Sequence to fold (345 residues):
Amino acid sequence: MIRSQSTSDSVTSEKNIKNRLQVQRLLEPGLIISSSFGSDAVKGLTQIPKTLPPRYFYDDRGSELFEQICALPEYYLTRTETEILQKCAGEIVRITGACEIVELGSGSSTKTRILLNAYQQQGLPLHYLPVDVSAGMLEKSAIQLLVDYPSLQIHALAGTYELALSQLQPSQLSNRMICFLGSSLGNLNPQECDVFLSEIVAALQVGEYFLLGIDLQKPKPILEAAYNDAQGITAAFNLNVLEHLNRRFGGNFDLQQFTHWAFYNESEHQIEMHLKSRRSQTVELAAVQLQIDFAPGETIRTEISRKFHLDVMQQQLKAKGLVPQKIWTDQKRWFGLLLCQLQGT
Ligand SMILES: C[S@@+](CC[C@H](N)C(=O)[O-])C[C@H]1O[C@@H](n2cnc3c(N)ncnc32)[C@H](O)[C@@H]1O
Fold:
């Protein structure tokens, strides 16, 4: 609900906000009931080992739980990236000048406010295109931003990164910056990461920018604590995937029969998050006509979260033509933020 002082103010401000907000659903309901409905979940759950794409974390409840995770003492990622952004936002604005901000996986857009503040302070126009599969969170955050930034224009895209990147129209401002924060790049395996970076390049013109936040390699106990918090919020977030599947695909997962398991796979430099079956069981997802057998202790891997090395990432980006202009880290070098510019070939 949009806050304001009186009924007539409220009508004016609701109208004003509607004029500045466009929401585009990239996954139309018609499309969801198509043959591709749930195909990624079916594929993951029928392979060995079983996996699921991390986007199934993010129904409304999952998005709320993720917000709680961001505030946990063990989850250093959000805190550290916020601290870096606060330090360097002014410099980002000086380098890019006026630009349309596209944010992939925008969630609550909390960190984005640091960037919006910096562009606003320089008197630059504010055009923001948040992209997220969690449509509820996307719209809620967009409305709150429009209340707080009276000159902001938002074109929200509800759908996946891939769909959004392939459907972006040319920027209405002279420049575009695509932001991918929160180390969400770490959720992609190396092959997916390569494809994703090519999609970023295809969505930019030469001279435009890519702002990337990545979690860096660090001692195992710090990493494992971040994904096994004492309050059990991460466990609830992980188990909520099953609730989401039940609702979306007519499933009968019993959440009591699975446990959260997260560990650092040192050879792959990645946190792996799994749901482990407590016993032998068969689960059905009626809407996609799937029966899934679990052996005792068998897992579904729900997420990888790769931990990066700054030099290696720089080389990988450069190989795609995304040349880092400036790199910032925190004092402990736990997290990295890279501002890259697309160079011509
Ligand atoms: C780890 S959260 C990061 C949120 C925010 N960017 C931050 O840094 O705190 C990932 C966000 O990306 C969204 N998301 C996950 N997979 C996605 C996909 N394939 N396409 C679009 N959005 C996705 C989720 O709904 C969630 O809001």
Q: What stands out?
A: The chain has a mean pLDDT of 93.
